């Protein structure tokens, strides 16, 4: 049992949700991207194993989204969110003492499960509370946590280059644990929003209005995950010494992008903003293919993908909610499951390409095709029901 506490300002729930995303996405998930080439150089994992680890993590993410829906339906959403965000931080810490690949794969799987639970429940809970308070226009700002997490995790990796092997996980873990405890407990006490209850509308999610949007979002999952997992590894493979690094450009571009796409969605409409979002993201991946081996391709890919991928997430969530306004976390879980499933394909396709002699960067053609798919499917999506 718990006692709900009414926030003194709408910004505190937004900050708390953003902090959970810093923990699970910045420190738990995407710290792996700048660490990947270092862990390979240290001999802890091979390049092929690095793709497999990403696949295990994204498999867990998909399972976690489904678990979040079960927890919500059993009225365990609050407790599940609290346990998942703290467990995610502890799993990052556990990786410090693991050097065997099978054990590391198991931890990355569990990390993905807890990430999926948090990524469904935290934004959904705060979004419904904001709707109740007539503040839904601020909902996209929760996703600043992803950009902040990318930036801080990159800084932690750069500042602790004296570490090696499995101990490279330690800085992210030490930063994650106190943030996880505070944010998880705060959201555990947040009052329920307008539709966070077990009487959710269970009408079909897939209908003529929403099906193109869902299929478009599936393309976004494959489109963004290749650069977001392998961009630093591609820079290392091309022997391009970028200052600042490609991953730092991604992180810096992601910070203003949250405000930018939130504002564009409010002014142009979420659908029109998404059309531009997909076009720019596809151009970013295309740049890497057009200028192979050159810093220009890396810069443009990092800037355009880093500046769009967060907007894709919350603009799609908001537009989907306008099409199905009473679906609650069920809607979030369905979208994240689609996104998570196609994310699985990215590392698998990269691994398949590497094992068959292809350059890692060449596998990004799949990401470009997926984003073009997403762009074309956005066109028939209605602006609102």
Number of domains: 2
Question: So what's the overall shape?
Answer: globular
Would you tell me the structural class of the helices and strands?
A: mainly alpha
β-strand number: 0
Helix content: over 70%
Strand content is under 5%
**Which residues form runs of ≥5 with pLDDT under 50?**
none
Radius of gyration: 19 Å
How would you name the CATH homologous superfamily of the largest domain?
A: MFS general substrate transporter like domains
Note the run of SSEs as H and E: HHHHHHHHHHHHHH
- The separation of the N and C termini measures 38 Å
How many strands, which pairing sense, and closed or not: the largest β-sheet?
none
CATH topology of the largest domain: Growth Hormone, Chain: A
The CATH architecture of the largest domain can be given as Up-down Bundle
The number of helical segments is 14
Structure description:
This protein is mainly α and 385 residues long. The protein has 2 domains: 184 residues, MFS general substrate transporter like domains (Growth Hormone, Chain: A); 184 residues, Up-down Bundle (Growth Hormone, Chain: A). The chain has 14 helices and no strands. Helix 1 runs parallel beside helix 4, helix 5 packs antiparallel against helix 13 and helix 9 packs antiparallel against helix 10. The radius of gyration is 19 Å and the shape is globular. The protein starts with 10 loop residues before the first helix and ends in a 7-residue tail after the last helix. The relative contact order is 0.16. Keywords: Membrane, Transmembrane, Transmembrane helix. InterPro entries: MFS_4 (IPR010645), MFS_trans_sf (IPR036259). This is YbfB/YjiJ family MFS transporter. It comes from Bacterioplanoides pacificum.
């Amino acid at each position: 049992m718990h006692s709900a506490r009414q926030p003194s300002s709408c910004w505190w729930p937004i900050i708390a949700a953003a902090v959970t995303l810093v923990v699970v996405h910045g420190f738990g998930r995407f710290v792996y991207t700048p660490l990947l080439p270092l862990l390979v150089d240290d001999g802890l994992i091979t390049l092929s194993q690095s793709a497999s680890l990403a696949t295990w993590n994204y498999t867990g993410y998909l399972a976690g989204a489904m678990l979040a829906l079960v927890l919500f339906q059993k009225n365990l959403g609050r407790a599940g969110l609290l346990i998942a965000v703290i467990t995610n931080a502890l799993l990052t810490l556990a990786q410090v003492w693991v050097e065997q690949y099978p054990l590391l794969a198991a931890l990355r799987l569990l990390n993905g499960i807890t990430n999926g639970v948090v990524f469904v429940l935290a934004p959904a809970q705060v979004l419904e509370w904001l709707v109740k308070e007539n503040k839904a226009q601020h909902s996209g700002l929760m996703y600043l946590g992803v950009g902040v997490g990318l930036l801080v995790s990159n800084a932690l990796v750069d500042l602790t280059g004296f570490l090696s092997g499995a101990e490279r996980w330690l800085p992210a873990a030490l930063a994650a644990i106190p943030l996880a405890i505070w944010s998880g407990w705060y959201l555990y006490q947040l009052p329920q929003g307008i539709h966070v209850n077990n009487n959710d509308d269970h009408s079909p999610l897939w209908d003529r209005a929403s099906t193109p949007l869902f299929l478009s979002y599936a393309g976004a999952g494959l489109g963004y995950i290749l650069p977001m997992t392998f961009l630093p590894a591609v820079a290392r493979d091309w022997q391009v010494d970028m200052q600042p690094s490609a991953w730092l450009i991604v992180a810096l571009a992601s910070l203003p992008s949250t405000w930018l796409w939130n504002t564009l969605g409010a002014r142009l409409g979420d659908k029109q903003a998404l059309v531009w979002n997909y076009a720019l993201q596809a151009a970013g991946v295309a740049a890497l293919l057009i200028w192979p081996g050159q810093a220009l391709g890396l810069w443009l890919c990092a800037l355009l993908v880093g500046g769009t991928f967060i907007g894709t997430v919350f603009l799609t969530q908001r537009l989907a909610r306008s099409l199905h306004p009473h679906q609650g976390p069920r809607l979030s879980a369905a979208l994240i499951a689609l996104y998570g499933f196609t994310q699985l394909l990215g590392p698998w396709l990269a691994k398949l390409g590497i094992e068959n002699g292809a350059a890692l960067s060449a596998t990004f053609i799949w990401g470009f095709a997926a984003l073009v798919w997403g762009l074309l499917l956005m066109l028939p999506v209605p602006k609102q029901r």
